[in-house]
Amino acid sequence: MITVMNKSNSLFNTYLSETRNEHIQKDSFRFRRNMERMGSIIAYEISKQMEFGVHEIPTPFGIAEEHIIAQAPVIISVLRAGVPVHQGVLNFFDSASGGFISMYRSHDKDGNFEVSLEYISCPSINDKEVILCDAMIASGASMSLAYQSLLTKGAPKHVHIIALIASKEGLENLRKKLPLKGVSLWFGALDDELTAKSYIVPGLGDAGDLAFGAKDAE
Known about the structure:
This protein is an alpha/beta fold. The chain has helices at 11-20, 28-47, 83-92, 141-150, 168-177, 207-212, and strands at residues 2-4, 52-59, 62-69, 74-78, 97-107, 113-121, 129-137, 158-167, 183-191, 193-194, 200-201. The chain has one domain: Rossmann fold, CATH 3.40.50. The strands form three sheets. Strands 1-9-8-7-4-5-6 form a seven-stranded mixed sheet, with helices on both faces. A two-stranded antiparallel ribbon has the order 2-3. A two-stranded antiparallel sheet has the order 10-11.
């Protein structure tokens, strides 16, 4: 299942437009906050796809029957740009456990790169709903590797992949590398172009730098 949030009119589009806006995104606090808000909105939509059970809730005047999520998900984010999205999802899933995946790009002199896994830290995901968060999906290489690394921690019931902006090329690459069943894709927007250096156009720039400051030059 693929859901593109900005195809429907909602407040999500306001927050997305502000993260893209080169003038507004100079405020890193506001940029992180908008990422967090979008993560929360997507989390709400994901919750509609999850299993619920009936619980009896005591009130001052009796018992109310309410439908409650049967099992809290595991929220995992790709460092570092995925952290504000992670927090937004966690805001809506109070009892969720969490984990983090660290990866890096190795560039050669021609501008080509390979994505390498540094580490993954998370609880067992056996038979659990997993929400995998990142800010951007450009070529899809990082997210494909992140998904494969998850499988070393167990066999999930379902994986929901969140990216605030993805490229169409990245989507096609994910379709080739991810299983047909057991994975849902949730994008804030799906942009048309990916440059030779894997920058999404129009995109929004480097989400990690905008959220946390520019990295030191290597």
